[in-house]
Amino acid sequence: MSATRRDPAAVVVTGLGLVTAAGIGVKETWSQVTGATAPLGVQRPPSLQDLPCDFMYTVGGLDVDAVLGVASSRLMDRFAQLAVVAAREAVADARLGPDIWDSTRVAVVIGSAHGGLDFFDEQQGALTARGARRVSPRLAPLSVVNGAAGSVARDLGTRGPSLAVATACSSGTDAIGTALQLLRAGACDIAVTGGAESMCTRAVFAGTCNAKALSTRTEDPTAACRPFDVDRDGFVVGEGAGVLVLERAEHARARGARSRAAVRGYGAATSSEASSPVAPSEAGIELALRAALTDADVSPGDVQHVNAHGTSTVMNDLVEGAVLHRVLGDGPLVTSTKAMTGHTLGAAGGIEAAFTVLALEDQLVPATMNLRTQDPRVPVEVVAQSARSARLDCAVSTSLGFGGHNSVLVLARD
Questions:
Q1: What is the mean pLDDT of the chain?
Q2: Which of 89, 128, 184, 260 has its CA at 20 to 30 Å from residue 22's CA atom?
Q3: Which is it for the CA torsion 136, 138, 139, 140, positive or negative?
């Protein structure tokens, strides 16, 4: 691997923050994800009543007004609130803050697929029902996709680049990849990066149901998301946020910071040949995976673990499994953690990158919950039933988004 600890372009992870349906905070979330227990947080929001898929994974037990303060929380849509909570944990974990860093050298890069779409939908209803004067003046700042990035930057007091990435379900991974590039280019010393999402919009759920992408297993929603299982029938939406603090390795070393993992490489590619905007493409996924391995100077045989996109849709799992096997062979232990968090859309890349760091730290691959019988057409080894201990030095996290976005991160023990 070319990116060693003494490489001036090396980038390391020094902090993690998580807010998911599996738990609030890294410790609680990881304990739930690696435990052999049923998924938590599957709810039936009233706005989804009577839809073919009327359930989703939600974050429970989080009082944002108490955590953020009423005045601050009212200036954010829920996806931004989740991002700020996760970012605070990540920065504290990295032992950073305004009294330590040069705020002009700290970047914030947060991905989201939908931004404040729920608030926009709510205000559209107010406009239709009660007229223009009833639309909130906060509509624009709360509904834009950069709301999370801006809110995190304001909350932390950073003054470096603040960017939003919107590449559907690849947004979180692409945000981390963008942060990696900023750090390598010397545009910042520290980057607070990841993804955030909270979307429960009836029209989007209805359309995604009609596209046959969502599970309709309404009789048993906690078992509905079952990646790589022969009986899978679609994904289940979740809300959440995953934030990482990345630093130039030299900067982290100079302040005596703990490196939780190294970010070795990033690759992205577009599936321009896909038959539709929602169809996964083997060619696009393979291009992104090979690009990430090349960027990391890692051979396929070096990869021991993959946190797969693994949505639980029939085609995604078939296509992704085929590419992983073709490029990486039989070696890596594969998992999808979405049965524990739901598919958090633009937040997924941030959450799953954090899980990949934790897997490397603990030498533990989480199980793909709800996987009872692996689809025989999926040719990779998927960890099921319970977490598995393994020697893990290098791992990959993959994200695939509507519109043909494919993104891959390579992470390694440092």
A1: 94
A2: 260
A3: positive
